Amino acid sequence: MQKRFIILVLFLFSGTMQASFLLLPMDETVQKNHLKAYGITFWCLNKNYKASWLLNYRGGSFLLPDADEIRKECQIRGVSFEILSDQEQATILNEISSPSQNMESVVLEKAPKIAVYTPKGKQPWDDAVTLVLTYAEIPFTPIYDEEVLSDQLLLYDWLHLHHEDFTGQYGKFYNAFKNVPWYIEQKKESELLATKLGYTKVSHQKGAVAKKIRDFVVGGGFMFAMCSATDSFDIALAADGVDICEAMFDGDASEGNYQTKMNYSSSFAFKDFTLERKPEVYEFSDIDMTPKRRIPPDKDYFTLMDFSAKWDPIPSMLCQNHTQLIKGFMGQTTAYDAGLIKSNVLVMGSCELNAEARYIHGQKGKGMFTFYGGHDPEDFQHQVGDPPTVLDLHPNSPGYRLILNNVLFPAAKKKKLKT
Hints:
By secondary structure, the protein is of the alpha+beta class. It has helices spanning 2-18, 34-46, 68-77, 86-97, 128-136, 145-149, 174-177, 181-196, 202-218, 228-238, 247-250, 313-318, 398-408; strands spanning 21-24, 51-55, 61-65, 82-84, 104-108, 114-117, 141-143, 158-161, 222-226, 301-304, 325-327, 336-337, 346-351, 356-364, 367-372. It folds into two domains: 2-108, UreE, C-terminal domain (Alpha-Beta Plaits, 2-Layer Sandwich); 114-411, Rossmann fold (3-Layer(aba) Sandwich), CATH 3.40.50.880. The strands form two sheets. Strands 6, 7, 8, 9, 10, 11, 12, 13, 14 and 15 form a ten-stranded mixed beta sheet that branches. A five-stranded antiparallel beta sheet has the order 4-1-3-2-5, with helices on both faces. The chain is globular and about 70 Å long.
C-alpha cells in the first residue's frame, strides 16, 4: 500500500513538472491577439517572471514560465498560449541555437519605465502609441514640456514623441485651420506655457525641449517617434539658434538666408534637407515624401528588412512580425526621402516603388532612437478630427506590432557585440 502511494505521488509530481513553460506563439494563424501578447509579456516582467523573446521563431514568439496566474491572465486578455514541457522547451531552444537557423533567444530582464510626450488637453487627433499601449494594458506616464524641462526624463527608460511640432510653427496648420477654434486655442495655450516657463517664443521653448530629449537619448535613453515628431525634431536641432518662423507663428519675420545656417551635424537621422519656407504649405521640409507619393492605396506597402538574429539582434527585435509586408498609411510625415538619411542610420523598412524609407533606427551617444513614418497603422489617411482607431478590430495588426517591438526592446538583456 505504501509502495503504491509513493508511485502515485511520483506520477503526480512528474505530471506537474511536465508543463514548465508557456509559449505565446506570434505566427499569423495561431495567435488570436498579437498586440495583447506584448502586454502579457510586459505584465510578466513587472511581476519579476523571467521571459525570453524567440527572434524569428514563429513570428517572434515569447517564452514564459508556466504559472496559474499567467495562464489566467492570457485567458482574460484573449491571448493564445501553448503549454510546453521541459523537453519541448529544450528542443525549441536547440533549434534556435543552431548556426543554420536565423533565430536567437533573447532574455528579457526588466520592464522599461515608459513616458509618452503628449499635451495635457484634448487634441483634435489621436496618437497610435497611446492607443496601443492602452489596448495592450502596458502602463505609461504622460509628460509634456514642464516635465521635460525639469529633467523628469531621468525617471524613464523609454520615451515616445506624440504627434508634435518642435519647430514652433504649430504643425504648419495655419493655412487650413487658422480660423478654427481648436487651432486658436492651441496657439494661445502654447504661448502662455512658453511665457510661464520663461521663454519669449514658443519656438525657443520647443527647441529647449528638443535638446533635453536629445540629452536623454545621448545619456542612454530609448526614443521612439512617429509622424511629424520625427522630422520636426531633427529640424529643431539643426535650426538651434536660427529663427525659421514667420510672423504669424512668432510675431516677427524669419532670419534672412536661414537655410544656409542649418547645422546638420546636430540632427539625429537626416542631412542636407531643404526647409519649406512658405507658411501656408502644410510641410516642414523635403524630408517627407507625402507630396511626392504616387502610389495607389491598394499598392501602398513597405517591406521589412531581413536581419541576422544572431549577429544583428537589435534590428531583428525591432522588425519581429508575422509578415514582412506591411500595409502603408499616411501622415503629415508619411515617409522619408532615402537620399536625406544619414549613412549611420539603419533603414529597417522601405518602399522601393517610391525610393522612400518608412522605418529607421539609429544610435546617439549611449542611447537609441527609432523613427516610424505615418500617423496610424490601421487608418490609411487619418484626418484631423477623425475618431480614434478601435484596436479590438485590429488585434493582429502588423503595423502596430512594430510600435510594440520598440516598447519591449529596452527590456532585452544587453549582450556583448560579436563584432
